[in-house]
Design a protein that fits this description.
This protein has 176 residues and is of the alpha+beta class. The protein has helices spanning 27-44, 71-92, 97-100, 124-140, 155-158; strands at 10-16, 46-53, 57-64, 117-121. It has five helices and four strands.
Length: 176
C-alpha cells in the first residue's frame, strides 16, 4: 500500500501475519512482540496511542515524533527485528510451522508482504473511533467478553488499569 506521509498526524497501522496464519497463537510470541514494540518505540521515536495483538495480525495507533522516522521506517523497525528473532528461535526448535512460512522466493516470512494497512488520522472523532475499534477487536472475535480482559491490548490502560509493559502516551488532537 502506498503511504502518504503527513507530519503531525496519528497513523493507524495493521500488520498481518504471512498468509494470515495465527502466528500469534502462543502467548509467549505475543509477549515477545509487546517487548519488541517497546524497544522500537524508544528507537524509532513515536508516541503509542493504542495497540492490540490478535492471533494473525496487529493493530497500532501511533504518532511519529520526528520527520526522520517516517511510518515506513517505524514499521520496518518494529516488524523486522521481531520476525528475525522469532524465525531464528523456530529454526533452533526445528518448528514445523517453518514449512508454512516459506515463500515462493525461498524466503521465510513472518509478515505478509507489503507495508500493511496505513491510514492518516485527521480528527479527534476518527482517532476515538480507531481506539475503540482496536480495543473491541478481541471481543468481536469472541476471544474475550470485555476488551479489558485481553492482555495484549491497550484497553486496560484506557480502563484505568495502568499495568503492563506498554505505557500509552497522552492523546492530542490530530493535525494540530
Amino acid at each position: 500500500m502506498k503511504r502518504v506521509e503527513q507530519e503531525d498526524h496519528a497513523r493507524y497501522l495493521t500488520f498481518s501475519c504471512y498468509r494470515r496464519l495465527p502466528l500469534f497463537g502462543n502467548d509467549r510470541i505475543k509477549d515477545a512482540f509487546v517487548e519488541q514494540l517497546q524497544l522500537a518505540r524508544g528507537k524509532a521515536e513515536f508516541h503509542l496511542l493504542a495497540w492490540v495483538v490478535m492471533p494473525e495480525h496487529v493493530h497500532l495507533l501511533i504518532w511519529p515524533k520526528l520527520p526522520e522516522y517516517p511510518v515506513s521506517k517505524v514499521s520496518w523497525i518494529i516488524k523486522r527485528r521481531f520476525a528475525q528473532h522469532v524465525i531464528k528461535r523456530w529454526r533452533e526448535l526445528d518448528a514445523s510451522i517453518l514449512i508454512e512460512l516459506e515463500a515462493r522466493d525461498g524466503q521465510t516470512r513472518f509478515w505478509q508482504r507489503g507495508g500493511g494497512y496505513d491510514r492518516n488520522i485527521h480528527s479527534q472523532e476518527e482517532l476515538n473511533e480507531k481506539i475503540q475499534y482496536i480495543h473491541e477487536n478481541p471481543v468481536r472475535r469472541g476471544l474475550v467478553e470485555r476488551a479489558e480482559d485481553w492482555a495484549w491490548s491497550s484497553a486496560r490502560w484506557y480502563d484505568g488499569q495502568r499495568e503492563g509493559v506498554l505505557k500509552i502516551d497522552e492523546l492530542r488532537r490530530p493535525g494540530t
